Structure formats: C-alpha cells, structure tokens
Amino acid sequence: MTNYNAHFRCIAGCDEKYPLDEIVYKCRKCGSLLEVHHDIDALKNRTGEQWKELFDSRSGQHRWPYGSGVWRMKEWVIPDIKDDNIVSMYEGNTNLFWAKRFGESLGMNDLWVKMCGNSHTGSFKDLGMTVLVSMVNEMIYRGKNIKAVACASTGDTSAALSAYAAYAGIPSIVFLPENKISTAQLVQPMSNNAIVMSLNTDFDGCMKIVQEVTKNNEIYLANSMNSLRIEGQKTISIEIVQQFGWEVPDIIIIPGGNLGNVSALGKGFTMMLELGLIKKKPTIVLAQAENANPLYRSYIKNFEEFEAITPEKTLASAIQIGDPVSVQKAIRTLREYNGIVEQASEDELADAAALADRTGMYCCPHTGVALAALIKLVEKQKISKKDRVVVISTAHGLKFSEFKVGYHEQNLKGVNSRYANMPIKSEPDAAKVSGIIVDEMKKRF
Prior knowledge:
It is built from 16 helices and 13 strands. The chain has helices at residues 40-43, 48-58, 100-105, 125-141, 156-168, 183-191, 203-213, 228-233, 235-243, 260-274, 294-299, 327-336, 346-357, 365-379, 401-408, 430-444, and strands at 6-10, 17-18, 34-38, 96-98, 111-115, 148-152, 172-177, 195-199, 219-221, 251-255, 283-289, 340-344, 389-393.
C-alpha cells in the first residue's frame, strides 16, 4: 500500500518545511504563511478515474470516518492521522440547491447554491474545523503539551471550534468583538462550554490578541492562518464537482472576509487538475461587502497593491474584516482562476437575500453578498446567462434571524427593504379575510 504524506510548506517559495504535528503557523525563515503540501507523486499511484471511484464508493457510507464529506477524502487531507483520533460530526455532504426560480429571474437556468450552512454548527467552518481539531487530538495523542485551542471570530469560526473541541474533550477559548455578532452565533460557543471573551474591538483587534495569547504554544491557534483549516475547506470544490458527475461548473461565487475560503476553493480544484480528475478550471468570483472591501479595492488596481482598511459596520458581520490574514493566498488563487472580485452595498445584499428567500431559500447576509455580486455581474455581462454557476452559501439563515426580522420590519440602516413582507392584521371575519387574500394574490402572484 502506498504511503501518502503531507507537511507544512512556506507559500513564498522558501525551502522551509515542517511536519504537521509541529506547532507553527508562519514560516520561521521569512514570516510568510504556510500551506499543507501533499506528495502529489505518491498520490499519482492512482489514476484520476480510480480516485473518482474511491471517493464515490465512500459516499453515503457510515464506516468511520468515511461518512464525513471531508474524511472520505482522507488521503488528500491528512493521510497519516489515526482514524481513532479523527474528530468528526459527519460534516460536508451538503446539498446542491437548484435555484430554479431565482435563476429564472435573471434569465439563467443553470444556477445552483451549495448549502454549506446545512452542517452541524450551521456554517462551512465545520469543514476546516474537523481537520484542525482532529490534528490537535492527534498531537495530544503523540505527547504534545496542548492545553486548549483558541480563535478570534466574527461568529461562525467560534461556533465550529467550540463544538468540535467539546466533542473531543479539548478546552476552547474564543475571542469575539463585542456587540458585533448575532445572538444566535454568540450563544453557540457559550452552550459548548467555551471560554468566551467579548472584547471591545473589531475582528482585527481580536486577531491580534489571539496571536499573542497563543505564542507560548500551550494554546493552539485555530484561525484560518493555520493552514490545517484550508485542508477541510478545500473539499467543497471536490464535493461540488462530484455532485455534478465530475463535471466542473463555469463559475463559483464565494463571499470572503479573512479570505481563507477562496484559497481553499482554489486548492481543491488544483489538486483535482494535478491528479487527473478534471481538465478545466472554473472562474472564481470573490464577493465582498462594500463596507469591508479591502480586496475589491486591490482588485480594481489589478492587485498591484493591497492596503488594510478599518471596515465599517456591515450586516454581513462574518466578513466585516479589514486586514485579512490570508490575502496573499487569495490573490494568488484569483490570479490562477481568472478571478473576479465584486462588492455589494448593504441595500443590495439585503434585497438579494430577501429575493432569494421568496424562491424557497433562507439566506444568511453573506450569501446575500454573493447573490448580489451574481446579479451585478450578470447585468455587466461578466457572467453569461448560459453559464453553470454555483454560489457558496456559507451559513444557515437561522443564525441571522435578527437580520431577517430587521429587514421585514424595515428598520435596517441603509436598507430600503423592497421585498418586506409583514403579517397582515385583520378582524376574525371570514369575508374580510377572503377579500384580503384575493387582493394579496393579485399583487404577488
């Protein structure tokens, strides 16, 4: 049986390499971020068709750990981890929603939404956290003195970390910006017995604190600058292609804040290309909120420079980040994948989410950012109406019920709420109720 292996490698081209069980987050030689590098030559002992057959054979299984959408691709993720040390809640395996009616409103018939929020903690962050916490579990098994795991978060990362750490019996610490995340997101780590630190700063401020706290290596850093997270998140690409019968969509749109997600998306496609599972690349579109758009500002200058910003408040709170740690990885990925960066105003993202909800979805504001970007790019003819397009929905709308209520009550700042739909008050009189229903049916349908 072939020995598959992987290690950390500097993204800047240094010759620095580190084993995956070493507590290291940046290159010690040049300070650049690291990435997990796989032995592609060893992986080529199987053909592309053989890899497809293997992954297909594991789909739908409950043989540990292959019931997970991440760990059914174990050889491509962390090949040498003991199965018993894997911490999984059978994440992944999320559905591709054919957005038929929403697509028709744009003149499209091949629009899909990857529902990554249909996961244990309600977001795509579960995909990366299963890998990171599993590796920490393995490291503790190997004798590493790790006492806890910690992250800075705008909500979803803290929920995923606290849940997976609780499942593994590892203490977790989360740093959240005070009054900047939804109540539903805040209560998740509280419920999972995390040490929840609410700091009077923004995400970037929390990120600085968590990096200081984790310097002594007894508390392990779980943010996306830790490239173990990327290994899980890259499986979105593979799962999408597998769900289309191993055909590559034309366009993928993903919202971005700290920008680890877009590099993960690219990495999954690159591995499939290198190992012969696919033959073409999709175009990757990164969608940002206009109030937190440092990458968009760089994109319109052809990525010639990048400047961090102080983000303004946005309804898409999880991507309210002005100094993303994974920016260089993201730029590299967008250059490789004919990338586009688009932005959405608060009004645009809220209306896009509401319009999608009218066709059967229940969108988080970040998915609203991606859908608003889609609408704008179709109007600008940068996306063809004939393209097969996949929008990544990063979280479940139920985590953002305050956003939904605010929209329909028409009290969101900077939002006109064109599609608001409040309950209609009426006396309990059948004739009056019937008349109202007739009127409303004429207006709406």
